[in-house]
Structure formats: C-alpha cells, structure tokens
Design goal:
Chain B: This is Small ubiquitin-related modifier. The complex is a heterodimer. Helices cover about 50% and strands about 10% of the residues of chain A. By secondary structure, chain A is of the alpha/beta class. Chain B is α+β, with helices and mostly antiparallel strands. Chain B is built from three helices and six strands, in the order ααββαββββ. The chains are: A alpha/beta, B alpha+beta. Chains A and B meet through strand 1, helix 4 and helix 5 of A and strand 4, strand 5 and strand 6 of B.
C-alpha cells in the first residue's frame, strides 16, 4: 500500500456498503448451491420433496437478495432467509419471523384470541430471569423494568389470555418451545433433544408464575419431533409450538424432514413478503 | 410571571415539555444498566448508536426493545409515549442449533 495515497472520506462508507453486499452475496451463493444440490438428489431418488424444493427454487428467481423482508412488524434483512437453505443455526431473527407467522395462523383459528405470543419471544425468558434475580423489585410499582412481563402475567391471571407461547434459547445454543397454560397451571416444555427442562429456566418460570397465580405450576413435556442432527432445534421447536397451540398433530413426527420444514418456513415468509411487494412480471 | 401570563404561555410550555429531556435506562440481558438523557423528539437510533459505542458492539448486532416491542429506526421517546425513567431492554442476537 502506498502511504502517500489519499482517499476521499466517502470511501469508508463505500467500503462498508461493499462489504455488506459481498457478505450477502456469499450467503445467497451458499443457499443456491444447497438448493441445487437438493434438486439433483431429489430428482435422482424420485423423492417426495421434489415439488417443495422446486417451489423454493422458483421463489429465488424473483426474490431480491438485499434489503429487508417486508410484511413483518420487525425489520429483518433478506440475507437471513439464506439460512433456511443450509444447516446454519437459526437466530432470534428467524424465531421472531416465525412467531409472527404463528400469530397469523392463530388469528384464523378458534384458539387465536386466547393465546399470548410475546413479540420478541427470545427476550421473554431472559427478562423473567432478570426479574428472578431482582425479586425484591418485581412488585415495586415505581420500578418500570418489568412492566411488560407483569402485564402478560396479569392477562393470564385475569383470563384475558389462557396460554402464553414462546421459544426460548437455553445455554446460548439451543431452542426449546414453551407454553404456560393458565387453566391447567402447567408449563409445557418441548425440547427437540428430548431433554428435561433446564434448571435455571424451570426455576425462573415457576417463580414468575407463582408471583402471579400464587400456586406452583408443574412442568410437563410438549410433543416435539426428535432432533437427529446438530442444527435443527429452532425449526423443530417452532413446529412443535405451532402444532401444540393449534391443536394439531406434530407433522414432523410423521417423517417430515427437518430441511423440508425449513423450506416450508422460507415459503411462508416469502408469501407474506410478496403480499407487501408488487412483483414485476 | 403573573397567573395570566402563565395561562397565555401555556401552549408554549407544552411545546417545551414535548422537547424536554427524559432519563432512560438501557438494560442488557445480563442486567447491566447504562443511563441516558435524551430529548423526547430525538430519534432513539441516536441513543442506540451511543449505547453500542459505549459497550463496544456493532449497533447492527443488538436489538432494542421498549415495553417488549422492538424499537424502529424512526421511533422517538415522544412517538412511543415514553416517560421519565423508562427502561429500554437490549438483546443480543441469539442463535441455537444444538447444545
């Protein structure tokens, strides 16, 4: 590098933008490579998943690869969709998108109005843990720190809502599904690895429910398809939560592949995005 | 100032109030707290940038929540009806696959 060379100040912004674009392009290349590979395999084995794979592949032909996903209350970059084609671990951004999809399904179901789904589902449990760590201040009216989790608790006690559904991240590496059932005084826990509930999570949730109901909630298992790999807990936990809240049978138990569940989630997000965006023919 | 003067300038006082700074507490998911004073008309994205710089993180990697909902780029304390000593929660993006 020539130390005497001088650059205009705008070049820093340009480099930042260029780096962002390059990263997104790399992610999309991996996604396209993965779906092309699946097309080939499914064609060879005459797999049942071929129509789904083709549908997802077709969607990529018109989808913008940069910018934000439209049609959701939160701004999530389009590049997050690439992870639904690969074995990339799903993040709280995906989980928030999925939660909005679930909320939409619930609106059209008979259970809809009785279910509470926190918008930022991944933040709900850490907030309860924060409250558990500061138990003395939870009921202090002048303390606004826990206002929104208090409101959710009150809605459950008053009967305005019957169930609280969420996905929680445990040990910063694993997604599990949770439903707090106010009528049954039960916390349903769905772990794709079929493990028992994390101790800290159980303690905090039982403490929080006790603060509002004055009784100890029991913990029971939620039906969830067993995770057989090292990357599918997010999609499996979400499907289990959706099935549980909609009173459906968990379809992944019937042999659905986790990678197909990812593609279906991708298509649902894209379908909602498309409703907000006019597509040039 | 006479009582009459106070009445006649009431709308002006309201405008001042609308712009008066409020104290906001930003709380991380681990419970660490950082305090800010911000005008009610100032975009909260400014506060977000200042917080990210203070904790040494990329602002794009953190999410800010008010009353359980994500704060958008255009939100201000006034648009969210924030009050003095309100709390903003900070969440770092979480990932999961297996443990």
């Amino acid at each position: 590098m020539d130390r005497r060379e001088r650059y205009p100040l705008w070049i820093v912004k340009y480099w930042l933008q260029a780096e962002k674009i390059r990263t997104a392009q790399d992610d999309w290349k991996k996604a396209v490579e993965a779906i092309q590979q699946r097309r080939t395999i499914e064609s060879l084995v005459d797999g049942k998943s071929l129509p789904l794979v083709e549908q997802a592949y077709d969607a990529l032909k018109y989808l913008h690869w940069s910018g934000d996903i439209k049609g959701f209350s939160i701004n999530v970059e389009m590049r997050y969709l690439t992870h639904l084609f690969t074995t990339h671990w799903l993040s709280s951004e995906h989980i928030d998108l999925f939660t909005e999809l679930l909320r939409e399904s619930l609106i059209h179901s008979k259970q809809g109005s009785s279910v509470e789904l926190p918008g930022e589902t991944a933040m709900f449990v850490p907030k309860i843990i924060q409250a558990y760590d500061k138990q003395d201040t939870y009921h202090d009216l002048s303390n606004k720190d826990f206002r929104w989790i208090q409101r959710i608790g009150q809605n459950l006690v008053s009967g305005k809502k019957v169930r609280l559904g969420m996905l929680a991240n445990v040990r910063e590496s694993h997604w599990v599904a949770l439903v707090v059932d106010a009528e049954m005084h039960t916390i349903f826990h769905g772990d794709p690895l079929h493990d028992t509930i994390d101790d800290q999570l159980k303690l905090a949730l039982q403490w929080w429910t006790y603060q509002h109901f004055g009784t100890e909630f029991i913990v029971r298992d939620m039906p969830v398809a067993r995770q057989l790999d090292s990357h599918s807990c997010g999609i499996l936990a979400w499907r289990a939560l959706e099935a549980f809240l909609l009173d459906e049978v968990c379809c992944l138990d019937e042999g659905e592949k986790a990678e197909d569940a990812r593609l279906k989630a991708f298509l649902r997000v894209v379908e909602r995005h498309d409703r907000q965006v006019s597509i040039p023919l | 100032m006479s009582e009459e003067d106070q009445h006649s300038t009431q709308p002006e006082i309201k405008d001042e109030d609308a712009n008066a700074p409020i104290n906001v507490k930003v709380v991380s998911s681990t419970g660490d707290e950082v305090f800010f004073k911000i005008k009610r008309s100032t975009k909260l994205s400014k506060l977000q940038g200042a917080y990210a710089a203070k904790v040494g993180k990329d602002v794009g990697s953190i999410r800010f929540l008010y009353d359980g909902s994500r704060i958008s780029e255009t939100d201000t304390p006034a648009s969210l009806d924030m009050e003095d000593n309100d709390t903003i929660d900070v969440m770092v993006e979480q990932v999961g696959g297996c443990h």
